[in-house]
Amino acid sequence: MSGGGDRDETGGGAGGDGNGHGGGDRDTSRNEYLLGAVGALVILLVLAFLGYQAVVVRDGVPRLEVTAAVAERVGEGWVVPVEVVNEGGQTVEQVHVTGVLSRDGEEVQQATATFAYLAPSSEQSGALLFSEDPTDGTLEIRPAAYTLP
Question: What's the confidence (pLDDT) of residue 47?
Fold first, then answer.
C-alpha cells in the first residue's frame, strides 16, 4: 500500500490492537455505558412525567376562575379586561363569561364574552364591553357555561 504511513493492513492505527480499536478501548466502553445509563434515566423520567400527567393531572373537572382588571372608558363605552384561568385537569371549549352590572339591587346591563378553547393549566384574556359605567355599581363577573371537547 503506498502512502499508508503508520497504517497497517487491518485498518488499525499506531498503538491499536490490530482489530480497528484504538488503545483507549476500556475508556470508550465505560463512557458508552455511562451515556447509555444517562439516556435510560432520561427516558424513564419522561415516561414517569407522562404517566403522572395522564393519571393525576388530567383527571378531574375543569375549574374556571375569572379575574377582572380596572374598567377603562373607551369612546362612548367602557371596557373591562378579563382573564379566564382553567386550573382543572380537563380541556374546555366555548367558555362563556358573563358580567352583570347592578345598581341598588337591580340589573342595569349584562355583557358576555366567549373563549373558544381553554386547556388545563392555561389562561386566556378578553374583555367585556359596557355602555354604562361599570365602576358605578356592583359588577359580578363569572363563568356562565362551557362545553367539553
Answer: 95
Run means of pLDDT, 10 residues per run, the chain, 149 residues: 53 51 64 92 95 71 93 94 92 96 94 94 95 94 94
Q: What is the rounded distance in angstroms from the CA atom of residue 88 to the CA atom of residue 64? A: 7
Decide: 109 and 71 in contact? Cβ < 8 Å: no
| CATH number for the domain harbouring residue 124 | 2.60.40.1620
* pLDDT value of position 7: 53
Does residue 43 sit in the same domain as residue 79?
A: no
What pLDDT score does 100 carry?
97
Whether residues 100 and 83 share a domain: the answer is yes
- Indicate whether 77 and 127 sit together in one domain: yes
Does 3 fall in a domain? no
What's the one-letter identity of residue 25? D
Q: Is residue 46 domain-shared with residue 107, that is, in the same domain?
A: no
Instruction: Kindly write down the DSSP assignment for every residue of 82-145, as one continuous string.
Output: EEEEE-SSS-EEEEEEEEEEEETTEEEEEEEEEEEEE-TTEEEEEEEEESS-TTSSEEEEEEEE
